[in-house]
Amino acid sequence: MLFDTHVHLNADQFEEDREETIRRAREAGVEYMTVVGFDRKTIPKALEIAENDERIYAAVGWHPVDAIDMTEEDLEWIEELADHPKVVAIGEMGLDYHWDKSPKDVQKEVFRKQIALAKRVNLPIIIHNREATEDIVELLEEEKAEEVGGIMHCYNGPVELAHKCIDMNFMISLGGPVTFKNAKLPKEVAKSVDMEHLLVETDCPFLAPHPNRGKRNEPAWVSLVAEQIAELKELSYEEVSERTTENAKKFFRIDT
């Protein structure tokens, strides 16, 4: 059994075969998924997908690339949706310094507002980080984000900062890059971080794992992530699958 903690089944890329994609995931042993909504278009779709499947959940938040577009009304809407029975986290949120659509100061302001929102509704947060690891860790410390904890989604930073995040009540989630032959950092993190702090994800339709790199990613392929972690940690695939699923269910407060 596997729990893909970060999927975008709400993306346009799945519009024509969403149900078949979910069926393939279940056939591959992926019982649970969290669909992440991050703007006005993807949030309602995430909720719709979660409402129609007992073991699919939703996260709602605002992506840092689009921070400049977020209004106070959007923030209020996200806070209202936090009461939805299938919403298990706020996010994805964070900082993205790769794209320059939203200025860094605007990204940071929207990030801070969402952390404050998560504290109000008592839900953990999901962190998007691209080329901004040190600034993200600093901001999480300043905002005392450990009060709600969260997930470092598709973590791609150094080992030392991974352990700093763990000390702040964050889980480390690994995705397709841990399977890439030239990706040293995620492999080092997988070896260094104890199983109790690890999660697995696909971030589909993005970041397909080896040997499917470059294709549209899908939840079924989270098994390839778990296989790589098992190999790196010299554990059985079954143990990695079981432990990461237990971790995710505990993190998201899921009892079923």
Task: Give an overview of the whole structure.
α2 (42-51) links the parallel β2 (30-37) and β3 (56-60). Helix content is 40%, strand content 18%. It is globular. It has a single domain (2-252), classed as Metal-dependent hydrolases (TIM Barrel), CATH 3.20.20.140. It has helices at 18-27, 42-51, 72-81, 104-121, 133-142, 159-167, 184-192, 222-233, 237-251; strands spanning 2-7, 30-37, 56-60, 87-96, 125-130, 150-152, 170-174, 198-200. It is built from nine helices and eight strands.
Give the uncertain stretches in residue-range form. none
CATH architecture: Alpha-Beta Barrel
Strand order of the largest sheet: 1-2-3-4-5-6-7-8
The ordered string of helix (H) and strand (E) elements is EHEHEHEHEHEHEHEHH
Binding site for a divalent metal cation 1: 6, 8, 92, 203
Organism: Salimicrobium halophilum
Pfam family, one: TatD_DNase
Keywords: Hydrolase, Metal-binding
